[in-house]
Amino acid sequence: MKKFFSIVPRWLPTFVMMALIFAISSQPASHLPSFSVFDKFVKKGGHIVGYGLLALSYLHGLSAGKSDNKPRFAEFLFAWFLAFAYGLTDEYHQSFILGRHASILDVLIFDNFGAFAALLLCHRYRSK
């Protein structure tokens, strides 16, 4: 039971990010703000930042309980895969929301780039 309570806080950021992404993608198109000429830039940037943070939170959870707390390559790869998979499921979820649609390009380009870039920056920062 003690181990359970030491692991849960490490996964809390992951659950918060997943809930936040789910809540935002559950909004009908008519409830989303418009950013005028910057609309695409802001919304696609949100994909990049959101999935970058999600991937980092997965990595944080996967690194739990190790003595050196340093992620291995397999953990980086699995964190990226989990973020990518969540992007796929979230786009599918969006297809059921009024005025929204699923876009595989959002997953392949923006979500994937955000997750990969964040993990790459984390790896480079931790390597120093």
Q: Which features characterize this protein?
A:
128 residues; single chain; mainly alpha
In percent, how helical is the residue content? over 70%
Q: What is the gyration radius calculated from CA atoms?
A: 16 Å
Q: What general outline do the C-alpha atoms trace? A: globular
End-to-end CA span: 36 Å
Domains (count): 1
Q: Strands, helices and their partners?
A:
Blueprint: H1 2-25, H2 39-62, H3 73-94, H4 104-127
Helix pairs in contact: 1-2, 1-3, 2-3, 2-4, 3-4
Structure description:
The chain has 128 residues and is an all-alpha fold. It has one domain. Helix content is 73%, strand content 0%. It is built from four helices and no strands. Helix 2 (39-62) packs across helix 3 (73-94).
Compact description:
With 128 residues, this protein is mainly α. It is built from four helices and no strands.
